[in-house]
Amino acid sequence: MPKLALMVMLGVGLLLDCPAPALANEELVLIVSAQSNIDQLDSSLVRKLFLGLTVNQHGDRLRPLLNESDAKIKDLFLRNIVSMSDSTYDRYVLRLSLLQGRQQPVVYKDKNSLIHAVAADPSVVSYVWAKDVVNNAQIRIVRVIWHD
Question: Are the C-beta atoms of residues 106 and 65 closer than 8 Å to each other?
Fold first, then answer.
C-alpha cells in the first residue's frame, strides 16, 4: 500500500510540474490600417459593409476584405458579422453584383497577404485572429468581433 501511495504522489507531482496546457482565448478582431481615420464601427455598420452596402466614415468609402484563410474564421464571420449561411451570403453578394453592379468583396486565402493589404490601404476593413496582429504597428484593432 505505501508503494501505491508513493506512485500516486509521484504521478501527481509530475502532473503539477508539467506546464499547463495553453488556453485557447482566441479573439476575432476587426482591423484597419494604422493610417486609417476609422475610429469605431458598430455591429450594424460592419454588417452593412460586408453585405456590400455603402459605408462612409470621415468622408471615405470603406471597403471590406474577406478573410478565408481559416475555416473557423469564415464560420465566425458568417455567424457573427453577416448572420447568414455560406450559401445565402454567396447568393446575396452575387445578386448585388449582378443586379446593382456592386463590386464583390475581395477574398483572401492567405492571412499574411490580407494583413499586408489592410496595412497598405486606409479605407480597407477586415478581420483576423488578434494574435496575428497584436504586435503589428501597421495595423489597428477597431473592435473584438468574437472571443472564446
Answer: yes
C-alpha cell at 67: 478573410
- On the question of pLDDT at 10 being above 70, the answer is no
Paired sense of beta strands 124-129 and 27-33, if any: antiparallel
Q: Is the pTM of this model over 0.85?
A: no
Q: Are 30 and 145 in contact (CB under 8 A)?
A: yes
Start-to-end C-alpha separation, the chain: 44
Q: Which residue type, as a one-letter code, is found at position 67? A: N
Distance CA 19, CA 87 (A): 43
The pair phi, psi for residue 140, each rounded to 5°, is -120, 135
Domain ranges of the chain: 24-147
Q: Are 105 and 64 in contact (CB under 8 A)?
A: yes
CATH number of 24-147: 3.40.190.10
Identity of residue 91: R
